[in-house]
Amino acid sequence: MSMDGKSLNITEDLISKLKEIIPGAFTEDKINVEQLKQVLGESISTDTDRYQLTWAGKNEAYKVLQIPTTETLAPNFNGSVNWDDAENIFIEGENLKVLKALQKSYYGKVKFISIDPPYNTGSDSFIYPDNFSETKEEYLKKLGEKDEEGYMTREGLFRPNRKENGQFHSNWLSMMLPRLFLARNLLKEDGAILIHIDEHEQANLSLLLNEIFGEDNLIGNIIWDKGNPKGDAMGIAYQHESILVYAKNKEKFLSETDLSRKKKNAERMLKKASELYKLLNTIDIPAEVKKVHKEFNLPDEILTKAKRKFTLEEINSQFNTWIKKQGLSGGEAAYNKIDENGNVYRLVSMAWPNKKKAPDDYFVPLIHPVTNKACPLPQRGWRFPTSTMKELLDKGEIVFGADHTVQPQRKYLLKENMSENLPSILFYGGSDDSLLRNLDLEFENPKPVEFTKSLIQAFTKPYSSDIVLDFFAGSGTTAHAVIECNKSDNGNRRFICVQLPEKIDEDSDMFKKGFVSIAELTTERIKRVFTNSNASQAQKLNFNNKKPIGFRSFVLTASNFKIWRGDMISSEEELLNQISMFNDSIKSNSASINILWELVLKSGLPLTEKIEKVELDKSEIIYLTEGHRMAFCLDKFTPEIQAKIIELAPSVFICLDSLFNKDDRNKTNTQLKLQDNGIEFKTL
């Protein structure tokens, strides 16, 4: 059996899914539109005059999506940290081709995608041909335009998309469409994508996401208030960005994801309450008196006269004063009381939440513990039935007023509610200038790590090995934030980050320090964060036997295998030239390790796959994947290797066809022998 050296064919994938759902819509392996209309009835519309998003170049954008890639990812061991045990991935390369290359290995496996694409302000640059009439060959040539050292040049792909351009919005939409489509494929059924955008393309992006993800899968539009209006605004000065969030399947996403965040100041509030509670029943001078005494240099006898026993009421008064000065969110500031046990709490109404009247069991009155009289009932009844109200009473979670004229409320303890629902408006105006200075690195407009960390924690779980993908990695904030998330909650999230090898401005400080591309600079940031984290961990007692963390670095590169170019054959001579090239399908300069990782990727294995090198001698090598799922033979095939393969018993054995030296009889015998031992045999 031969392997296909291409990425997932998007068209074939969609057709196979449609066949599973509506097999009757196909005739002779083609979609029968009339039959499809008959099956779906009124649910299908053929009217061209309908609400839809369209632009110049949309059809071409879909064609770009449908072209599989033969390119692959080569390991960059020098750019990695702790390769053997690493669970994180950084990829240097053009993100459209990388997304195509990842389809087989990561289809339906990513929990959360967070991207910060170009905002199309008229001054930024992005990758997509601005001439939609160009041929495929011209486009592919443009993808290959690099300088002598292999870095992508602005003259090739990084084209300013000026507002004067007649296809200003079209170019941006054509760039985004195939990438978002491929990104959706990579999401798990309960996964979601989060996209940062500003006012320039927010409206268009919403419509595009509705088309790709379906408007029913919109989770929400978050407003990120940065607290600092743009100083160069010609009209309304925007001080916010939008963050659009869509799920692959909203129902499954919401059933599996809490969408909550840790209350930022909760720990600090509990600590302050604990400090104040220790003063209960002690004799001391109130803090306000001490402050006035010091500020106005008053006589000491005033302090002596002000001494008093601290009551719970006094402690609550001081706690309330402190709370008001902290600038807390509404959800935090509501926890402004300390009970007799030192617990911080808030009071919440227990009234029936709906307009419809509650059942009779929800109208049983509560008796005041002091006056022994019934307290007022909510107009539409209690929120809970009698049995639940009794449980709350027994646990001391119902608070009565001074007498029976006050309606009782429920007590919520802060220590039991350390998280809050993710709100639609997020306030964060900080920067990472100090953090990046400590790393001795600089980036243009990096997203803040702490803010990104809070979003990742809201959309992922600590212990589910969730994969976080960012294919516009830029400064590497997402990777950094994933590391910080795991550090704070001992989680095992993993990241995959993709960044172009775009050249750095030669006048910049980073270029003068020896960094040539943004991808190189981003890699160095991730390296330094991992190195610092591992050094910090090494100083602690390692009770859980935790291994140092790290990442594997890969580079997008051409396939190690020769590609049949039927489009270049126009004569018998050219046909013979193509045939002669394929006496050996491997390119002459291909290293075995690069061939191995291309086969790993195109076999659908993850880039974190652990591979054992089994050596019979220096030239007889078998590469064995974890769990004996696959074995590869790339350098030499001998009877000894065949015997070892049977002993190792992998599920699949992949071998280069050229190792049989055109001996079809030997190849057939090998296949039969392996099949007899339950091993699937593939050649390439």
From TrEMBL:
GO MF term set: DNA binding; N-methyltransferase activity; site-specific DNA-methyltransferase (adenine-specific) activity
S-adenosyl-L-methionine is among the record's keywords: yes
Matches recorded under SUPFAM superfamilies: S-adenosyl-L-methionine-dependent methyltransferases
UniProt key word Heme: no
Entry's Gene Ontology BP terms: methylation
DNA methylase N-4/N-6 domain ranges (all copies): 110-498
Protein name listed in UniProt: site-specific DNA-methyltransferase (adenine-specific)
Uppermost EC category: transferase
Domain of life: Bacteria
Reactions accelerated catalytically: a 2'-deoxyadenosine in DNA + S-adenosyl-L-methionine = an N(6)-methyl-2'-deoxyadenosine in DNA + S-adenosyl-L-homocysteine + H(+)
Enzyme Commission code: 2.1.1.72
Keywords: Methyltransferase, S-adenosyl-L-methionine, Transferase
